[in-house]
Amino acid sequence: MLKKQILIALFIILACAGSRAHRYMFKHLEVADGLSSNTVYSIYQDRDGFMWFGTRNGLNRYDGYTFRVFRHLNNDPYSLPDNVVANICESPEGMFWVKTERGYALFEKDKGVFVNDLSGFMKQLGSNAKNPMSVYVDKKGYTWLYVAGEGCYRYKQGEKPKVFVLRENGLPVSGITAVGECRDGILLLYDTGLLVCIGRDELDLKWKRDDIPAQLPKGKYVQFSLFTDADDCVWIYSVLGLWVYDVPTGRWRDDLAAPWKHQTDFVHAMAQDKTGRIWLAKEYKGIDVFDKKTGEVVNLTNHEDDERSLCHNTVYQLYVDRNGLVWAGTYKKGISYYGESIFKFNFQSLGDITCIEQEDAQRLWLGTNDDGLLLWNIQTRKFEEYGSRRMGSNPIVTLLKTRDGKLWAGTFNGGLYCLDKGNIIRYTMADGLSSNNVWDLVEDREGNLWIGYLDAGLQCFHPQTGEMETYTTANSDLPDNLINSLCLLPDNTLVIGTVGVAFMNLQDRKIRKMPSAAEDRNDFGVNQVFGDSRGLVWIATLEGLKMYDPKSQVLKEFSDITREEGEMISGIAEDHRHNLWISSTRRMVHINVLQQGEEGYSFEPHVYGNADGLQNCDFNLRSIKTLKNGTIVAGGLYGLNIFNPSEISYNKQLPNVLFSGLSLFDKEVEVGKTYDGNLILPEDLNKVRKVELDYRQNIFSIELATDNFILPEKTFFRYKLEGISKDWLSLPPGIHRLVFTNLNHGVYTLKVKAVNSDGYESKEMAQLKLIVRPPFWLSWWAYLLYIIIGVSALLFARRLTLKREREKFRMQQIEQEAARKEEINQMKFRFFTNISHELRTPLTLIIAPLEDLLKKTAEDESQRNVLQLMYRNAQRLLMLVNQLLDFRKGEMSGHHLSLSEGDIVGYIHEVCNSFLSMADKKHIRFSFFSGVDAFSMAFDADKIGKVVMNLLSNAFKFTPEGGRVTVMLEYVEGDSNVFEIKVSDTGIGIPDGEKEHIFERFYQIEHKGQDEMTGSGIGLSLVRDFVRLHDGTVEVFDNIGTGAVFVVCLPVRHVDVKAELPKPVCVPMDEGQETAMASTDRKDFPLLLVVDDNEDFRLFMQHSLELQYRVEVASNGQDALTKVQELQPDLVISDVMMPGMDGNELCRLIKGDKRTAHIPVILLTARQAVESKVKGLETGADDYVTKPFNMTVLVLRIRKLIELSRYHRSAQTSTIDPAPSEILITSLDEKLIEKAVKYVEENISRSDLSVEELSHELGMSRVHLYKKLLQITGKTPIEFIRVIRLKRAAQLLRESQMHVSEIAYEVGFNNPKYFSRYFKEEFGVLPSAYQEKEGK
């Protein structure tokens, strides 16, 4: 507790110290300035730049000069629904969301119309509510609307609305009091303190933090608010306290919230300025400004004696505009706003300060008019005692601190004082002074004190000897005994300001008047002479500012700086940048001196006044001083202005000009209102940028404004009205209205630029188009009307002629282009047709001998398999050639229908039977259903057969193993009797977007992972054409679950011609029958693994290599990788192009595994490019063979690679065959084996039973199970499971009547071929032979 109290005390000290060190000066707006109410609840700057204030009495728009107020009107349904405006935000479409006590309303600010009924908008979002509870517009332009009981809706014009349903995400459906955002997404804050973050794009729950509810009493509900700073720290505040959550680190920052933890005050609003400081608006104690980097807290409150302090201590709202201004809305005093460049000069009210001298880095000596000499501390802003006895009450007019540390003070009618280490010595006429009216003091290089008197000339006082040298008009060339100012130049010349200016050479004590040209006066009244670092002499006179260059003896006058003839200049000082600061009547002039050439100078003046923070009074003569740290202090009647030129913040924001209003005959023009039948402003003037007036409405004025609210009274506008003048004109600062009278009819363009308070001009000019319509009798079209009528006939005739000729030429171009394209297409078609015809003859000569050979080689099964492989692929090639010829025939002369009467059911059934072998080969369940046993109708058998074959070919092509293909026939009776053919599959399906294109010619769908499943793209096009020839239709739909359904509807017709239906070609397929090799022991043969996704190629390779090697096959890379790891083959032959894992990836994985890196890999591909070969070899392939290849060469490469691999392996290591010692199985081992056997038997039909599952069931790791089973049984876990499967299969072969394939699936093998191979390895015979021998 004590530590907390100490911590709080330290923060209070820091806050107090900060309030002294920092000077925050505010400007104010209230009811007297046009604000509708001094109670301000909300502040917002729109995208145009106008400021908007929500008050207790309406909505206010502020343009820097005037307010425009929107209130509720009883008889106006488009007015503000309620005068209490609690919140304002703007959507990207420019619409305002205005929250009142009656809920939200949409404000079309360009039209000045409020939409109070939001039920239609909410219905579009999908909400049943009539009004949202809270609205927030995020940085990406999304509008978030919270509706109690439903959720948060996300809306953006042009996008479909989405909703985050609170209940579905386990969140309370009501109680959200604030919506914000952070880098993770959108923040929702509940009245319990629960903080939730949802994804901005996915609308998912990112995270939630319930730390605050845990700290509060149960059932406590309050209004929480939040603010996210630039570091993504979320500040949460309410009447119960303040919390800070750091989103990047995911922790609560108690260190940041510590200054406000135990305060009785609470926070209303927060904002962050452009320097990163956090501003906190409080209920009782004004504003806290918190620096996160240093931890410093500065408290800003109202001070009755300081008009630049915060206007009221209860602050409801804070807002930082685009230019960095901080706006504060208060409870009873309107608005205060702060900007670093608004007040450039700090002001300290200390009374009438006549002269200034520096004591040290923190303290100043101040001479006053009526309070003597004061010692003032700049840091503490307090006076300090400097001795036991003070000087008299005579006005102190000059102060000088000499090199020996003494302070000299000259007074009016009180003589000269010397303050030395707390002792005060007074010198009067009795001590040798020429007069008691000491007006100025200066010290020369020898330490002598030069004294200028108001009425007695000049004296040199030698402090060491006490001697006096007196110079008057009587004994010297001094122009006058009135000495107003003295200064010493670097060349040891004393400049004397009197009636005119004189110079004294301190070496010979000679005085001379300032040399000047004949036209230059030298009898002006001088207030101060000042020598700068360049040696230039600056002269402050009663008539203005002058500068004298001793080198060129040129006197320059600055008449452009003085506002009017005879303006008095009070004082002069030089800053550390060698620029001059001139004090005058209520003004401070900054002169930037620029070198031009060797001796010339240029001068840039900048004038500052009361609006910049200067005291609103005259500055005292010579009461200006540059301190050692560069700070300049200027004294006036009310106190001190203190500023450091290097720290002045300038308004560098370039202003954008806004057109804020239009007045006609000195009356404001309202949006949407007609005047004399003329709708002048359909929308806000700043948006339309166009005004069209009747010729009688030619006296009007335009209100100008900018989006820069820093000292708008110093902003001035430059404008040019094109159509009248080409010159740019300027309005006086503070004047923002352009008045135009008696403009002649015509079109004008008003161009306007703005120059801000510190002289920065806008780069882009604003333009407003002005149109003054002429009267009818002066309109140009009245004069041209008859000419137009006379000429129009000729122009119309000419136009028709030109149009006809252009159309004729265009049609000729189109015809020529179409003819050229048609000729090219015909050339392409002829080429493919000729090639196709040429292919039919060789194919016939291939297929016919093959059919003859198939009949003659019925007994030689091996040779028959090879011939069947050749026959199938030749038939496939012939089918493609025929399809291409059919397509060409349709292109040239169109397809012709040859109808004949026949049984369409039987014919289609025969076509389907030709696919049975393919279905069996791909393990696809192929079904045929017909609602009628037979149905006779007229159809073209050739074309219907091709339709069914094309549909079935696609179905089988895109249906994976284990899938289903179904053909259904049905006769549908009705108004039009139709015969319906449905072909469905469970394949990869067809996306909705592709269904309308698949019947187009050459159109193909790209399926990921289906690289090899390509075609010509004309099959379905032929299907559509053949069906249309029958006056039928073909459509495609999604199958239930997955896949597609093609529906062909043929109208039922009858003809007298009987059909002789052709027999569909039934290609003999490999039935997968089990063949046993010769009884030769092949276990010592090298083992090859052939990987290819083409079944025929795998069979060919297996047949070609099985005489010399044991051959295993795999259909894809993933299956091959598994077999490589299990079987450890001597060599792998893999195709490169495969779906899923290709050959290159398989090779890389084999070579990257230490267990398989020694296995040689040969890659096969049809790609001939060198780049493909390099890529394959880079992955680690031992050889790269391109298709087609010579089998003899390939076999030779295989043998050499295996020999080389075995040689390297034998050379590198010598193997030891480990033999396990005899062990005795303990009872625990027996139980383990018994449990393992039981679990495998219970799950024997599951092909996915894994070693991980078995080890988990037995309660041990996979490694432990491997070692234990190998120790007890001599088998690995995989072998253990396989042996149990095979022994159960042997039982079923002996005892049951099931087929071999059924038993294979029953014991968990998903491939009967694998089952046959492993069964033979275990029992020495094939399963069929075993069943025949051992079965009952």
Our Rg estimate from Cα atoms comes to 51 Å
Sheet with the most strands?
5 strands, mixed
CATH architecture descriptor text of the domain at 347-463 and 476-647: 7 Propeller
Principal-axes geometry comes out as elongated
Biggest sheet strand order reads: 61-67-66-63-64
Assess the beta-strand content as a share of residues: 25-35%
The helix content is: 25-40%
Which regions are unreliable across 5 or more consecutive residues at pLDDT < 50?
1-21, 1009-1014, 1065-1080, 1213-1226
The CATH topology of the domain at 347-463 and 476-647 is what? Answer: Methylamine Dehydrogenase, Chain H
Q: CA-to-CA gap between the ends?
A: 94 Å
How many β-strand runs? 79
Continuous helix count: 23
**Structural class given helices, strands, pairing?**
alpha+beta
At the first level of CATH, the class of the domain at 347-463 and 476-647 is: Mainly Beta
